UDP-glucuronate decarboxylase
Amino acid sequence: AAHHRDLSGPARHFVGGKVPLGLKRKALRVLVTGGAGFVGSHLVDRLLERGDSVIVVDNLFTGRKDNVVHHFGNPNFEMIRHDVVEPILLEVDQIYHLACPASPVHYKYNPVKTIKTNVVGTLNMLGLAKRINARFLLTSTSEVYGDPLQHPQVETYWGNVNPIGVRSCYDEGKRTAETLTMDYHRGANLEVRIARIFNTYGPRMCIDDGRVVSNFVAQALRKEPLTVYGDGKQTRSFQYVSDLVEGLMKLMEGEHIGPFNLGNPGEFTMLELAKVVQDTIDPNARIEFRQNTQDDPHKRKPDISRAKELLGWEPKIPLREGLPLMVTDFRKRIFGDQDSTTT
Ligand code: NAD
Ligand code: UDP
Ligand code: UDP
């Protein structure tokens, strides 16, 4: 880890602060937990691109080596197979803490493990951040608003969450993770950032992870019916992954703790989403209604005024532009299409 130590000292000096005129930004050592996952791997690409050195800590529960394999051999990249529920010793300047399954199917698979990951895993990463005085960013979720009674959701809304339901391991886990993050900030003076991420899609999502965009796209490509749960009138707001990654990096580098909603305010019913998928992939794709899951939030749409004002961030890619980029990647992974390019 000698090359990591070489980058210490002066690097930390400019974290979030203004880099003096004429001085190049110093490379940082950055830990990305969950960095072999969907969002994490795109973040890792950007961090390496700007010259930082990156350590990924991932237990590969829902992540895949494939997502980061293009960095193997890069001396600035290192992957450690490790479960954040266990303590770990590392030396870095910043920690992006993403480790946690995000698809309802995955986080319900072993709910107690999901809680441990969110609570013990986040505690460990905060303890690590405290010991090495690193800046810590938590990827929380719009699910902290539960089945919201306020629409769109503003960061000041405290939410409407069922504490004993099938989604609670995730919702309540993330709420506790936010609490821990603020307690380390207040108690240990740790520099922290909190992002509340709304539904995000893009290349490298697990093909069969059960989330609605990945399901519809894979189904349309395989000429299977699109499975709409319930009456299909529930809404979500879909953000393209590169917009999210830009928001996360702006949040980390900025001066504000948050929480910040990071999402695309473009709101769609599941039937409208199915229509966009039909228009993009196959106008003849059939729709099949299925029974909805328990405690499914009826609507969700971010109010992003705070991120716009304080981070100077807003998403740029609407669903109809982002979806084709994801379709190219899915087509290639499902059919092994030689002609398509991937992101
Ligand atoms: P993902 O499932 O693709 O990635 C999560 C990564 O964390 C995977 O690589 C997985 O192997 C790893 N992981 C899980 N448990 C772990 C553990 N105990 N120890 C170490 N690694 C572990 O999900 P994603 O969509 O990339 O989500 C990343 C983060 O963003 C998550 O914290 C998620 O809660 C949050 N988020 C995502 C969305 C979204 O729509 N994608 C929305 C809200 C919040
Ligand atoms: N921790 C870790 N790596 C470190 C420092 C701490 O994994 O470099 C873990 C540690 O094992 C503990 C948690 O983080 O379980 C919280 O640490 P902290 O020092 O805040 O609390 P304490 O150890 O006093 O309970
Ligand atoms: N959904 C659907 N068909 C599917 C998968 C999901 O209609 O094949 C619905 C689901 O009921 C929910 C919405 O799509 O209302 C978003 O679900 P997802 O699991 O993607 O994310 P969530 O926002 O619930 O975490």
User: Anything to note?
Assistant: Residues 87-89, 123-124, 127-128, 130-131 surround uridine-5'-diphosphate (ligand 2) (CB under 6 Å).
